[in-house]
Amino acid sequence: MLLLAGGAATAQQSPGSLGPGYDPLAPSHAPAPSAPAIETSDEYGGLPVGEGVDLTYYMCGACHSIRLVTQQRVTRARWDYLLDWMVEKQGMAPLPPEDRAVVLDYLSRHFSSGS
Ligand code: HEC
């Protein structure tokens, strides 16, 4: 499966084209009355906010939609494997070990099947 939903780099839009009242820093919507425990970030494609969200968004949304990542519920061991697989078979640039650990922690924390 290959989802090509435009990378972060192409999603830019000129604020001017959205009208004079448009404030790019204004929240796009008020928080829902029953806001979920985990806050998500509009800036990072709806990813849960937390350490590693930016790194994960830019690294893992570069070739395919970040949703290909967020729809997964796999074990930490599987994420570990997938990170290597992305480098060895899909041509992802290898992450420095400390960045790789941050991304692995982030993915395991938020998109894991738990065991
Ligand atoms: C260099 C390009 C590239 C980067 C960067 C990349 N991927 Fe991928 N990824 C691919 C390609 C290509 C596929 C589709 C492979 C296929 O289905 O044949 C894929 C597929 C996937 C899949 C689906 C695997 C499955 O079981 O079908 C997941 C999950 C995934 N990537 C996670 C990630 C994560 C997490 C990152 C960031 C650490 C990442 N990718 C970064 C190229 C990339």
Beta-sheet strand percentage?
Answer: under 5%
Question: What is the tally of beta strands?
Answer: 2
The profile of the biggest β sheet is: 2 strands, antiparallel
Find the CATH topology of the domain at 39-115.
Answer: Cytochrome Bc1 Complex, Chain D, domain 2
Mean pLDDT: 83
- Report the span from N to C terminus: 25 Å
Number of helical elements: 4
How large, in whole angstroms, is the Cα Rg?
Answer: 16 Å
CATH superfamily of the domain at 39-115: Cytochrome c-like domain
- Gross morphology: globular
Structural class: mainly alpha
The CATH architecture of the domain at 39-115 would be Orthogonal Bundle
Identify low-pLDDT runs: 6-11
**Strand numbers in spatial order across the main sheet:** 1-2
Order of helices and strands: EEHHHH
CATH class of the domain at 39-115: Mainly Alpha
Percent of residues in helices comes to 25-40%
* Attached small molecules: heme C
Feature tags:
mainly alpha, Cytochrome Bc1 Complex, Chain D, domain 2, two-stranded antiparallel ribbon, 4 helices
Describe the structure.
This protein is mainly α. The protein has a domain at 39-115: Orthogonal Bundle (Cytochrome Bc1 Complex, Chain D, domain 2), CATH 1.10.760.10. It has 4 helices and 2 strands, in the order E-E-H-H-H-H. The chain has a two-stranded antiparallel ribbon with strand order 1-2. A hairpin with a 5-residue loop joins strand 1 and strand 2 (47-48). It is globular. Heme C (HEC) is lined by residues 1-2, 59-60, 62-64, 68-69, 72, 82-83, 86, 90-92, 103, 107.
